[in-house]
Amino acid sequence: xxxxxxxxxxxxxxxxxxxxxxxxxxxxxxxxxxxxxxxxxxxxxxxxxxxxxxxxxxxxxxxxxxxxxxxxxxxxxxxxxxxxxxxxxxxxxxxxxxxxxxxxxxxxxxxxxxxxxxxxxxxxxxxxxxxxxxxxxxxxxxxxxxxxxxxxxxxxxxxxxxxxxxxxxxxxxxxxxxxxxxxxxxxxxxxxxxxxxxxxxxxxxxxxxxxxxxxxxxxxxxxxxxxxxxxxxxxxxxxxxxxxxxxxxxxxxxxxxxxxxxxxxxxxxxxxxxxxxxxxxxxxxxxxxxxxxxxxxxxxxxxxxxxxxxxxxxxxxxxxxxxxxxxxxxxxxxxxxxxxxxxxxxxxxxxxxxxxxxxxxxxxxxxxxxxxxxxxxxxxxxxxxxxxxxxxxxxxxxxxxxxxxxxxxxxxxxxxxxxxxxxxxxxxxxxxxxxxxxxxxxxxxxxxxxxxxxxxxxxxxxx
Length: 463
Fold this sequence. Notes:
Layout: E1 37-40, E2 46-51, E3 57-64, H1 78-85, H2 97-104, E4 108-113, E5 118-125, H3 129-141, H4 147-166, H5 177-182, H6 186-189, H7 196-201, H8 204-214, E6 220-226, H9 230-241, E7 264-270, E8 277-283, H10 290-302, H11 309-317, E9 325-328, E10 343-349, H12 356-372, H13 377-395, H14 401-414, H15 423-428, H16 432-442, E11 448-455
Parallel strand pairs: 2-6, 7-11
Antiparallel strand pairs: 1-2, 3-5, 3-6, 4-5, 8-10, 8-11, 9-10
Helix pairs in contact: 1-4, 3-9, 10-13, 10-16, 11-12, 12-16
C-alpha cells in the first residue's frame, strides 16, 4: 500500500512560479496556474512536463492505470504484489542497479498501489534525468519476471500482510473493512491488501500476462517536474519511450455502485485493540461534478480541523473522541487521485463509557443540522480557505511529489493535466444551496455504513 504521503506540505509560497494567490472574491476565477507541456507518443504514452527552478532537481513519476480495484478475481492483492515485482530489476538494469543509480546521485525513489493506479517516482538532481528516463523505460518494457523474483516477493508481501496488518491492533479497520461493508460491487469491496492464499497462488504466467495487459505505454502517464528544459526533455522522452510497443486497450470492468438505500452496520471483536473504534462512511458524488466539489467543502465543514462541526461535537463538547481522521479517499490519498466510486468517511477510537448508540446520536445531530439548514456565507468561505490551503500544500509538497500526483491523475483519468488550474474555480462556484442539496442526498442515513470495533485486548492486571 502507499509508502509515501501527500501530507508532505510546505507553505504555499514555496513555488511562486507555479501557484499564484487566489482573487479575494470567492466566486472569482482561479489564479492557480501550473505551466505544462502535454503530448502523447505514437505508442499511447501520455507525457506531462512542468518546469520550475526552485531547486536543481527533477521529479519523475510513472503512473499506470491499474489499481487494486481491477486486479484479477481470485488474485486479491495481485496489484500490490506486482508493484513489488517492478522493483526487482529489468533486462538492462538487474536487481539493485535502479536503487544504486538513484542513491549514488543523491536521490530517492518509491512507489505505491492505490484504488485506480500504481505509481513509481524518483527525485534526483537535474543532471541525472536522462539516466532516470532510461531506467524507467527499461522497467516498462523489460521487467524481470521469473520464478525466483516471484517467490521472493510473494514472501515479502506475505510478511508485510502478517506484520503490518494481521498482527496489528485494528488491523484492516477501517481502511479495508469499511469499503468492503459499504460497497456491493466485487471490484470495490474485495480485500485489496490480499488474501495470503491467493497471493501465494500467483504464477509466473499470471504476472507476465498482468504486465503485458496493464504495464504498457498506452496505459501509463509519465510526468517530469522541476529544473528542466522543455525541448531537451521531450527529446529524451521520445528517445527512450517511443520504441516501447503498445498493447491492446485495457478493458475496464464495470466498477459502478448502485445507490445505497439502507443503512449498513457491522461490528467485530479485535483481540489486539485496547479501545473501541467507530467508523462511518457515505458514498460520494461522481468525481468532477458540482456536487463532488460541494462534498469536498462539506468535508471541510464537518471533519477537517479543530473548527469543524464533528470535531467540536465529538472532541471539544462531549469528549467522546480524542481526535478524528478521514475525508474523501482519506485513507489512501486525497479527493483528487481516484476515479471510481468512493466514500467520505471518518473514524476514531473512544472510551468504553460511550456506547455506539450514543455516538451515532451525536453524529446524527451534526449531520442533520447541515442537511436541514443552509450554511452561512462565512462558514462556506472558511471551508474554501481551508480547502485552498490543503490544495496548495499538496502542490508545494516536498520533492514536488504532490504536484506530480495531481498532474498525473488528471492526465490519466481525464486526459487533461491543465485541469489542476481549474480546481479552485470548481470550489468557488459552490453555493449554500448546493451544499444543502448535496448533504440531503449523500448524508442521509440510508447512504451510511457504520463499522464498529469492540476491544478484545485485556487491560493490564485484568483477566
